[in-house]
Amino acid sequence: MSSRSIYRTLRPVLSSSVLSSGLGTGHGIKGHIISHLPTIRFLSSDTSSSATVNSQPEIPVRTADGKVISTYWGIPPTKITKPDGSAWKWNCFQPWDSYKPDVSIDVTKHHKPSNYTDKFAYWTVQTLKIPVQLFFQRKHMCHAMLLETVAAVPGMVGGMLLHLKSLRRFEHSGGWIKALLEEAENERMHLMTFIELSQPKWYERAIVFAVQGVFFNAYFLSYVISPKLAHRITGYLEEEAVNSYTEFLNDIDAGKFENSPAPAIAIDYWRLPKDAKLRDVVFVIRADEAHHRDINHYASDIQFQGHELKEAPAPIGYH
């Protein structure tokens, strides 16, 4: 039977009126198709085609600012509520993505450079720190926003390259893809929190644009050439992040920076008390950075000992 004959045979039985009449119970091709495919589109995916007989109803989707997106392909938004019954307002993360961080982690730990690669990584980070400190000095909020736009890059680059490696070699990653992408997402949530408190000026956005472009490409090349070096650099970057947030906390405690109320996104993401303050937010972010420090130094140590990351258990969900 030709494709045109098949189409003519199937088209009548795809309308809702014929489906409800029980024609799908007969013998032959019509009976088999209908029993498995209640709705089928043929020949074209053009949603505006007048030839579509069994068109789906449009599902309106409402954006955060109240605008309605009406589309054939609209997927009904998930309705999620908090334990108290109130609506979940965030699209960038879900309740199961939130967590209570381990703030007991040692924030003073430091990996002492013991070989040439370690020393190269350490002094690279120390050199990059100089212009940053000269520019931002004690402007903690601006410094934090720039820091997070950079800190979210290594996890994404590492996860992406491990993903491609896993595909090329037809092998598992040992969970490290997920662990590194979790790190990148966590760093991005730090940034999403800070922009609730302060908006960067135009020249700060320009700096971020330039720094991100340079850093992404440089880190990409370093990870391709030597993943253990790349992870060591990230470990030292995270050490500096911990130090920066410690200075931020000290200035809040000294009254040099206003301890304003924590933004709602931070309260939901880190499961903070409703009356949480900025200090509470910076405190948990510092703990996050300390965990990222440990993950990257751990990853570098694994490879320095001649192993691949997949051979060691990935610290998934290490908060």
TrEMBL record:
PANTHER family: ALTERNATIVE OXIDASE, UBIQUINOL OXIDASE 3, MITOCHONDRIAL. Homodimer; disulfide-linked. This is Ubiquinol oxidase. GO terms for molecular function: alternative oxidase activity; metal ion binding; superoxide-generating NADPH oxidase activity; ubiquinol:oxygen oxidoreductase activity. It is a multi-pass membrane protein. Keywords: Electron transport, Iron, Membrane, Metal-binding, Mitochondrion, Mitochondrion inner membrane, Oxidoreductase, Respiratory chain, Transit peptide, Transmembrane, Transmembrane helix, Transport. It is found in: Mitochondrion inner membrane. It catalyses: 2 a ubiquinol + O2 = 2 a ubiquinone + 2 H2O. Belongs to the alternative oxidase family. Pfam families: AOX. InterPro entries: AOX (IPR002680), AOX_sf (IPR038659). The keyword Membrane applies. Its EC number is 1.10.3.11. It comes from the Eukaryota.
